[in-house]
Amino acid sequence: MKNRIKHTGIGFRKDFAEEFLEGTKLTTSFVEVAPENWMGIGGYWKKVFKKVAEKYPVYAHGLSLSIGSPEELDFVFLKNIKEFLHEYNIGIYSEHLSYSKCENAHLYDLLPIPFRWDAVQHISQRIKTVQDILERKIAIEIVSYYTPVAAEMSEVEFISSIVKEADCNLLLDVNNVYVNGFNHNYNAEEFISQLPLDKVEYIHMAGHEQVAPDLIIDTHGEPIIDPVYQLFEYTVEKLSSPVPVLLERDFNIPELHELQYELNKLDTICKKAWTHEKLFA
Fold first, then answer.
1. Is residue 280 part of a domain?
2. Domain tally for the chain?
3. What is this structure's pTM?
4. Which domain holds residue 189?
């Protein structure tokens, strides 16, 4: 069941867990979960998650590592993450290039980090420590943001420097790049072409909402729009080898056949760009 010659996966949600596991309306090559939502659970939902892990390869996308925070890493949390990744044989662990905690206060948002060299050094060292503890490389996601903070270098230079200094991988969220390009008035294709694309391990795709003529909010609650599909096609054609592609839908969940339509469209673009298939198992 785990070997599927497709490139696309879905974020596993409790909202459609039963229909997904028992039905045939949604076929996917892997699933992604937020480990914070599944670590340490028991009872019914643990049984459900074990079924998922037996049927599909599982990737983990973290929410609360807070790699940009000024204080010490949460080593107890990292120990629990390591155990979770091992228990379910999780292939990719990714996190956000942002921070969500300060002085032990959880902010429940992904806040931007200043594009500065001292931030590059601080974050790179923290990523190295995380990778040493987990005994694996992690993938860091380019996040959406709505105002730069005390920037002293370009965003693409900031991201590229962290990936190089930390020797980590990159999670390229194409929708986030589209949102940032629109909101901050830069060319998204040029931005992507300047990234260390050889370090891209994983791609995210999602929808967003335009709330004003000059503002888009990254919501993960709407279908992907055509310009983001076009940016995705540009991106995958730039990559030298296939990587897994995730469809994110965090709320406003549609009927499963609508998610399947988006997955199929993404997979068609991948197959057009990548002539040699790869199994993500």
1. no
2. 1
3. 0.91
4. 8-273
Residue 3 lies in a domain: no
- With b for 16 or more beta-carbon neighbours within 10 A and e for fewer, the 171-199 pattern comes to bbbbbbbbbbbbbeeeebbebbeebeeeb
What is the Cα–Cα distance from 80 to 249, expressed in whole angstroms?
Answer: 26
pLDDT tens track, the chain, 281 positions: 344 446 899 999 999 999 999 888 899 999 999 999 999 899 999 999 999 999 999 999 998 898 888 888 999 999 999 999 999 999 999 999 986 655 565 555 567 788 999 999 999 999 999 999 999 999 999 998 887 776 799 999 999 999 999 999 999 999 999 999 999 999 999 999 999 999 999 999 999 989 899 999 888 889 999 999 999 999 999 998 999 999 999 888 899 999 999 999 999 999 999 875 544 44
Instruction: Provide the angle, in degrees to the nearest 10, between the axes of the packed helices 226-238 and 174-184.
Output: 120
CATH classification of the domain holding 244:
3.20.20.150
Cβ atoms of 176 and 204 within 8 Å: the answer is: yes
Distance, CA of 219 to CA of 209 (rounded, Å): 6
